[in-house]
Write a structure and sequence with these properties.
metal-binding, Glyoxalase, Glyoxalase_1_CS, about 130 residues, 4-stranded mixed sheet, 2,3-Dihydroxybiphenyl 1,2-Dioxygenase, domain 1, methylmalonyl-CoA epimerase activity, 8 strands, alpha/beta
């Protein structure tokens, strides 16, 4: 479809808005509005233009990511990837913030590098530096 021009936002189900907001603020996202709407939803945006909609209806007792942490492989989105200009700098910042790297850095055959973290609800975030 030629009309698609980009991604408008990423929707992430979370159990606690304040906890999610504090975490994503550490990554440079800015709170815009919320909760709003019948779902309800809260919105944060990064200066790079990446927009996240937090869907505020996750069960608070859940500790597993059903798409990533159980043997059965259910269909669905497993993670989102953020392009970065310097993966080593990202890794140093994550360590300084006390955010554990759950996988990586992994060097790709084309020279790119990626690493993964999880937010407080175990949603997976990839940082990706192109070759």
């Amino acid at each position: 479809m030629q009309e698609i021009t980009g991604i408008n936002h990423i929707g992430i189900r979370v159990s606690n808005l304040e906890r999610a907001r504090e975490f994503y603020e550490q990554l440079g996202f800015v709170f815009i509005v919320g909760p709003i709407g019948p779902e309800p939803v809260a919105i944060m945006e990064h200066p790079s233009g990446v927009n996240i909609n937090f869907i505020l209806n996750a069960n608070s007792g859940s500790t597993e990511n059903i798409l990533m942490d159980i043997p059965a492989k259910h269909p669905g989105y497993t993670h989102f990837a953020l392009n970065v200009s310097n993966i080593k700098s990202v890794e140093k910042t994550l360590i300084k913030l006390g955010i554990p790297v759950t996988e990586g850095p992994i060097k790709l055959t084309d020279g790119g590098v990626m690493l993964f973290i999880r937010d407080p609800d175990n949603n997976v975030i990839e940082f990706h530096q192109n070759a």
